Amino acid sequence: MERILATYRIAAPESEMRARAQALAIEQSVEMPLAAIGDEHVLRDVVASVESIRPGAGGFEVVLGIAPATTGREASQLMNMLFGNCSLQPEVELVDVELPDGFEKFFPGPRYGISGLRTVTGVGSGPLTCSALKPQGSPIEHLAQLARTFALAGIDVIKDDHGIANQAAHPFEQRVIAVQKAIADANRETGGHTVYAPTFSGGGLSLREQARVANEHGVKLALVAPMLVGIPTFVEMQVDLAVPVIAHPAFAGAARIAPPVLL
């Protein structure tokens, strides 16, 4: 059975690495002594395997083979199997992941990508420009005027600063209405295609309500921090938002996951 290959960097002495790697394999799969497991199927098909151990920068690189079935083919459980309990171990860092052929279809990537963003902004080639509305705490009128200024200047994407959410100073719905109008007015004057990406935040109910507001008022782009709203929630937002989503890296540095792997 082809497995998910997860590479970890472990800071530990060479004399401990074999035992440390085996302990990691158990921790990231069954989390109990193997001697206490009597089911051959679990031992053979569920327990993670140590595929290799090799010296690396800052310690050793350990490759585990993780059974694809243990992920349930959904984002949160995939993250759990890759870096669940071992995220509590400060000497362990997840540095690479290789999925079996065809397994990536269960975890689709960007629906639009850079080409979709170009379509939304009307910029077929060349650089795309972006600026942020800030600071948080500003009245909506100020943010709308700032958006108008950016749009008149030809900025392609105007996003909320990631600190602007659904606060009392600039509630989501009122802000979206005002900023969308300011940009639309500027676009009419210039013939431009500037688009606004408001920050979506909160839990599932809040995000769904924000999606309703965004769809109702013609929002063409969204800004979301996956590590704040939760990766599964971020994935499922595709159901409610039929527009490109920009992923903001807020809180992504809190985990010991190499940035290329996280992205």
Would you kindly provide a written description of the structure presented here, covering whatever features stand out?
The chain has 263 residues and is α/β, with parallel strands linked by helices. The chain has 2 domains: 4-106, 2-Layer Sandwich (Alpha-Beta Plaits); 113-262, Ribulose bisphosphate carboxylase, large subunit, C-terminal domain (TIM Barrel, Alpha-Beta Barrel). The protein is built from 10 helices and 10 strands. The strands form 3 sheets. The chain has a 4-stranded antiparallel β-sheet. It has a 3-stranded parallel β-sheet with strand order 5-6-7, with helices on one face. A 3-stranded parallel β-sheet has the order 8-9-10. The longest helix has 19 residues, at 172-190. The radius of gyration is 23 Å and the shape is elongated. The two termini are 27 Å apart. The model has no long low-confidence stretch (mean pLDDT 94).
